Amino acid sequence: MMYQIDKISYDYSQGLILKNGEEIKLTNKQKDLLNYFIDNPKKILSKQKIMEEVWGRIITENSVDQFISTLRGYLEENPSKPEILVTHFGKGMSFEGAIKKVKPLQTPKAAVNQLILLFLSVSIIVVSYFFFSSVFVEDKKSPIDSAQASPNRMLFITDINNSTNDYNQNSATQQLISELLRLSNGADVVDTSRFMGTEKKQELTKQMWQLNPNLKLVKTQLQLSDKEYVLSIEVSNGLNPAKKQHFRSPDIHKIVLDAANYLAKENSQNGAFDTDLLTLLPEDKYLVETYMRGFSFTNKGETAKAIEYFNLCLQEKPDFHLARLSLAKALRRHSQYDESIAQLEALRSVNLNESLTLVVDSEFAAVELLRGHLSEAKSLFEKIISNYPLTYRLYPAYMNLAATDYRMGNYDQALERLKVLEKTINEKTHPEDAALIFNTMSAVYLYQKQLDESFKYINKSYELFKKIGDLQREGLSLARLSIYYFMIGDLQKAEIHIRQSYDIANQLGNKRSQQAALNHMVEFKLIEGKFDEASKLNVDLTHVANEIHSLPGQTRAAQWDSLIAIEKKQFDKAQRSISQHWQLAQTSQSKPSINTNLILQLQLALAQKNWKMSDDLIQKLLKLEDKDFLTSSFIPLYIEYLSRQGFKTRLFNVIEEQKKKTDVYKDKILLQKLAISLAEEHLKDNPKKSIELLKNLMVNDLIKYPYYSVLAEGYYQTGDFMSALVQMEKAKKSYNQRWNQELQELYNKIRIAVKAQHN
What we know:
Number of helices: 33
Structural class: alpha+beta
Strand order of the largest sheet: 4-3-2-1-7
Largest sheet: 5 strands, antiparallel
Number of strands: 12
Shape: globular
Distance between the termini: 71 Å
Helix content: 55-70%
């Protein structure tokens, strides 16, 4: 049975959506859920009823929310403002789409004659178009299009089974072969080792075969038997029977090179490595084993151990270039940027082939980006793009250049670069690359406060990561979704999604992803004023950061310790934490962290009413060039300082200047802080105006963080004691650990006034 839902066609029995000429095949449960809504149009259905009727068993409401969110992505014009699957707060969901039955789609057999006629007609039009285009129209392909961003041949490497030894040598061998193939003749290698589950791999493989007849699927398995390595390789070309090859040797170096050479011939017309690439692996099998052990620790995120093994390799063989490159990458992940640069400089002094030189140059630029040296990073990325042939291998450079642009505030330029990539990538043949591009675009849109666009691209990347079974990056998309909900002021959903991201990181044992999720979880608890919960989470964050020796994680944990201590008036502890944060910021040579330390010092100085130190710090901060940082972190503190010092004229000038630069949609949080600062000032001489400002904030749904006490003070000063008491009751429920003696005194004063008025 076919339905027309607004502009979308839907096959009820097959669970197939036809939207804008594209087919979307729903999973069984997605189909069951949509069919249930269609069977019950215009009815408000509680989540409990949906769970019972569709699933027939207990699942979490969060899971139901995820299914509904996915369906909205398929059905709605704007998923953030749904008109088909509508939420009725506190009641449930209803299906409000305009729906009618239509004739079923033609089967392929019934459509053959029409397709032949259509083909002939289109052929005539296309031939005419290309004739006239070749004569009259100038070719306007993008540079990446003309450089063949998606090669015809694709090598798709996966493992036969999960047979590994104590340090994942099977996976390390597979990835080393992949690396050699990329560096030899630019093979387009998709490594599925991070994809979860056999079914996902088979599903993705089948899809890629259908879309790319030149696809070769490679399966590898390494075993050690009687002191001899046996590497089994299967190569399937499309749906043809697999070619099987076995390589045996006690020397793992020989096996890896023989296998890589064999695969290079399978994947290339001239089928050979560059001559100098053969020298990248030493002949000593134990040295290669040591390198692969370090390689496997890198893959697991244990960079400290990886660094030890790569250093062992270089002590034995200083010209082991692959080990030095891997060491530079591990040092970069370990936030030892100077040491990483030193290794890259050593590689630059060697005559390397083009592929390796590209990787080394890209690493240089990546390190500068992480250090916060944005101008240097941008210059390096632009040099890479201009110096090398534009193939798909430059996608990372384009994305990093876009990342550098948005860090510098060049949002339009960043988006322009990403849109070039979006037009050139085929998300069906390269879903993992497309997902990464969409994910980066969502980040830029978030920074630019284009929240609807960001939400769209977060969902696109999330669906692609789910489709290919990349659970790790699925967790990354959930974290990005959490930040989106935080920015629109929905802290509850933000916490749900970051918890889901953290659960995935735990499932995978990925410490870096755990660290990233914990960082946001601490931040959200701080915003809610739940300092004890924030402190407990920060202990976990510190533990994970120390375990993987992550300087950024340790620095952020010290920042949160400082803020918690300041909020709790534990000033000695705050000073110790700020000093620790300063040492870590200096060690990492990170400009953003150094600037953040100035902000922490200012917060402590204001809390201690140390006006001389506050004034000195403000003068330093006003000289900083990072305008976004100044606006988001410094301006609210600057306003607090001016208010406390009684600099009323300057205070109002700053507020008005910031209000002109800010609008409700782009930065709710800053506008809220500005308005509340104005309200607090007006309490002194015009409490009615203060009340008006705060009530306007509430009407516009801006107050997510409670400032009921300011409103209560306004009502109290105008003599409306009952309204003041209502606001203080709300404050008592919402303030958590921010409820202090000063607020209690205001609460008691208002209660006494109400009682006196009543009597």
